[in-house]
Structures are given as C-alpha cells and as structure tokens.
Write a structure and sequence with these properties.
By secondary structure, the chain is of the alpha/beta class. Helix content is about 35%, strand content about 20%. Bound molecules: adenosine-5'-triphosphate and magnesium ion (MG).
C-alpha cells in the first residue's frame, strides 16, 4: 500500500486543498452545461442543461443508462471537452477562461482522470505510463513513486509490461495508478471497476476511497455497479443528457 506521508501534505496549512475547504469552495460547479457532439446525421445533443455541484472531499457516483452522457459529462468536468454553453468552475477556477495550455497545466496539477478506454501510451511500459504524469509535474523520484502505486494496485509483477501485454483489468489498474500517482485534488474515474473481478474490484475501491479519506480528494465515479454507487456520499443519475435526480442518496 502507500507509504504513509509519502504523498500526504493535507495536514499543512499552506495546502491549497485545505485553504479551499476552509473557504468552502466547491470542488466542481457546473451550471447550464449544454453540449452537442458529432456532425450531420450523427449529431447528438449529449448534455442538456446540466447544473451540478460537487463539494470538496465528496464522493459522487454518476449513474444512468448506457448513452445517457456519463462519460461525456466526466470529460466536461475534467476540462477535456468544452461545452457549447454553460460554466465550469473547478476549485474556484473558471475553466472557460483558460486557453488550452493553461487548461492542460491546471488538469495536470489538480485532476486525475481514469478513462473508460484507459488511454495508456502503447509504447510505454506500465511503469513508464504511471511515471509520466509525475515527470511532467517535476515530481522527484517519479519511477520510485510509480512503482509504489503499481504495487498498490497489485501490479508489482507487471512493471515492465507494455499495455498490449496486459489483460483488460490490468490495463485498468495501470490507468488507476497513473491517475492516483500525482495526488490529485479531484479524481474522476469512468467505471473504474468495470473490468475487474470482485476481489480486485474491492481492492481498487478501497484505494479510491483511501484517497478521499486520507488525502481529502474529491471523487466522481461513473459506475454501473450499485455496490460502488452506494459507497458514494451521493448519487447523480443521468437520463438522456439531463440530471434526473440530483438529491438521491
Ligand atoms: N463524438 C461523438 N459524436 C456523436 N455522438 C457522440 C459522440 N460522443 C458521444 N456521443 C453520443 O452521446 C451519447 C452519450 O455518450 P456517453 O459516452 O457520454 O454515454 P455514457 O453514459 O458514458 O454511456 P456508457 O454507459 O455506455 O459508457 C451517446 O448516445 C453517444 O452515442
Ligand atoms: Mg461511458
């Protein structure tokens, strides 16, 4: 598991995360988000007037039928997809006011993302994939830390495998280790247990919730798994691009 204190800075008063909590800044505030994707006959009005707030350190489960817009909403929250209209404020920063470079820097510092399709770099080993965001963030001991994160997801024996040499569940765990490694304030994960057996899934869920408990991270988890949804503080249900029931527990 994680070396305690290896990443943890949350006890320090100059931690921006603690300052944000003290100032009661929402981790994520979306208002009036509309987004259409695709061209011509393939054009879909994916998100329709979505307004949603996620508190600092809160775990929100994002649920809803296939095609309801969950992955797209996650991309919008992470600043990877710009909406046609509406406002996205992440930890007090209006993402609409950032150019692409500033947005990429902001994401790199604050947000960990686990994609539904993993998006590992195929030419890099598991270890190199996890070390990459640490190197980009100029963190010391990137490879040492990457190794610890991979051990934490049960992949200490697959450090030098390339993505194509890993099973789906193993790739998923590399993606989770990569997202967790830089100690993000916000972690958004798209069906993080979707490819895992029950025991491995539980291990990953423990790891995600340890981020919340020990490091004060905010979690937004897309899931079809009712067990995982129940562990969240709150569930938000999407249907046809709209928030169906914003206050359901
Ligand atoms: N680039 C695109 N062009 C056209 N339509 C798109 C595009 N991306 C997504 N869509 C459509 O938007 C809808 C929402 O997609 P999204 O991937 O957000 O669904 P989801 O809720 O994550 O579904 P699942 O549970 O199957 O992963 C789908 O009907 C999809 O076909
Ligand atoms: Mg999806």
């Amino acid at each position: 598991m994680f070396g305690k204190g290896m990443f943890g800075k949350s006890a320090e008063t100059d931690d921006p995360r603690q300052a944000a909590i003290a100032a009661d800044v929402r981790a994520i505030a979306l208002s009036g988000i509309d987004l259409s994707l695709g061209r011509g006959a393939a054009r879909v009005h994916v998100l329709r007037g979505i307004s949603l707030e996620v508190g600092q350190g809160e775990a929100v489960g994002l649920v809803g039928p296939s095609g309801s817009g969950k992955s797209t909403l996650l991309m919008v929250m992470a600043g990877l997809e710009r909406p046609d209209s509406g406002r996205i404020v992440v930890e007090g920063t209006d993402l609409g006011g950032l150019d692409e470079d500033a947005l990429a820097r902001f994401r790199g510092r604050r947000i960990g993302i686990v994609f539904q399709a993993f998006h590992l770099v195929p030419t890099m080993t598991a270890l190199e994939n996890v070390a990459l965001p640490l190197e980009l963030a100029d963190k010391p001991d990137a490879h040492f830390r990457a190794k610890a994160e991979l051990e934490a997801v049960g992949l200490g024996h697959r450090l030098h495998h390339y993505p194509a040499q890993l099973s789906g569940g193993e790739q998923q765990r590399v993606a989770i280790a990569r997202a967790i490694a830089p100690d993000p304030a916000i972690l958004v994960a798209d069906e993080p247990t979707g490819n895992l057996d029950e025991a491995t899934g539980r291990q990953i869920v423990d790891l995600l919730f340890a981020l919340k408990r020990d490091r004060g991270a905010t979690l937004v988890l897309v899931t079809h798994d009712p067990g995982l949804a129940r562990l969240c503080d709150r569930t938000v249900r999407l249907r046809s691009g709209r928030v169906e029931d914003p206050v359901a527990a």
